Amino acid sequence: MRGVLLRPEQAAYKQARLLVNQRFDGIRPQAIAHPADVHDVVKCVNFTRTSRIPLALRSRAAAPLHRRGWGRRPAH
């Protein structure tokens, strides 16, 4: 994986696992992946599937992606 994989023993894990909705702050994932690209996403999904590890997805806010040109409608 080219992106970052955080484990509970790493300092950055504590902040990365927090969610906007504090109702779920008790959740402690085995790892948190920050994929660098679509290939990393595929690797993560395939690894969790073959290892039978539960997978939960969380995406970034849409605004930063929109500023980069992603998610825009095609110009006519």
Task: Describe how the helices and strands are arranged.
Blueprint: E1 4-6, H1 11-16, E2 32-34, H2 38-51, H3 62-67
Antiparallel strand pairs: 1-2
What this model shows, in words?
The longest helix has 14 residues, at 38-51. With 76 residues, the protein is mainly α. Strands 1-2 form a two-stranded antiparallel ribbon. Helices cover 34% and strands 8% of the residues. The relative contact order is 0.16. The model is unreliable at 62-76 (pLDDT under 50).
Question: What distinguishing features does this structure have?
Answer:
single chain, 76 residues, mainly alpha, two-stranded antiparallel ribbon, disordered C terminus
Lateral strand order in the biggest sheet? 1-2
Helix content: 25-40%
> Which regions are unreliable across 5 or more consecutive residues at pLDDT < 50?
62-76
Task: From the alpha carbons, calculate the radius of gyration and give it in angstroms.
Answer: 15 Å
Average residue-wise pLDDT: 80
Largest sheet report: 2 strands, antiparallel
Along the chain, the helix and strand elements come as EHEHH
Summarize this entry quickly.
This protein is mainly α and 76 residues long. The protein contains three helices and two strands.
